[in-house]
Amino acid sequence: MISTTHRVACFLILLFASLNVTAVEQNAASAPEGVTEQAAAPHSPADEKRLLKRFANIKTVTAEFTQKLYTSESNKPQVTYGKLLVAGGDKFRLEYTKPYEQLYIANGKEFLFYDVDLEQITIKPQTKELANTPAMILSNPIIFIQKYFVKLSKESYYEEYILTAKSDTVAYAKILLSFKNTRLKTMLIEDSFGQETELDFTKIIYNKKIPDTVFNFTPPEGVDVISSVLKTKAPKKDNEN
Asked: Domain locations in the chain?
C-alpha cells in the first residue's frame, strides 16, 4: 500500500512539476529512440499538440484530490484524500490527509518523505530520488508523446485523452487524462501489474502565488530522520586555526 502510494505520489509530483511547455519545446518533440515511424503511426499529431497545450504556461498548481486504488484483492477501492501544491517546476508539497497522513516535500535540492504513523522522515537528494522512480518518464509533458500514443476520445464539456504505452518497458501501460474547462479533472493510471489508480481533482487553481515557506519543513521533536543528503561545512576563515 505504502509503496503504491509512493509511486503515485511521485507520478503526481512529476506530472505537475514541469507543466510550463513552450512552443519551442512542443515543436522539438519527436519519437523516442528505438521507435520507428511505422510503430508511431497510430498517433494523432493534432491530439498530441492539443494535450501539450493543456499543460502550457502553468507556473503553479494548487489542488485537492481523492485517490482510489483498485486491486484484484478487493472489490472495493482503497480511498485516500490529499492536497497538492507545486511551484517553479522543482518545488512541491503533496500531503495525504486521510485515512493516514503522509507528506512529500521538495525544495529544489532535497526530497523529504514524512510518514506520520511511523514517526519517520526520509530525506534524499531531489534529483536522485526522482530519477529512481518509474514516473521519471513523466517529468516533462513532451515525454507523453514520446512514450505514449495519444488519442482524444471525447469532446464536449470534457476532453479525455487516452495514452497507450508504445512499449512494455514503460512503467504505466495506460493513462487517461480528463480535462474540464481546460483544467485537469480526473486521471486514471494503469500500471504493468494491472492495478488501476484513479485521482479526482477539486479546487484546482493555476498560477496562484505560493510562498516559499510552504516548501520548508522542520521535523517534529522525537521523529526519526534518515538522511542521505551530505551537508557541506562552511569554509573556515583565514584567521581560524
From this structure: 2-142+189-227
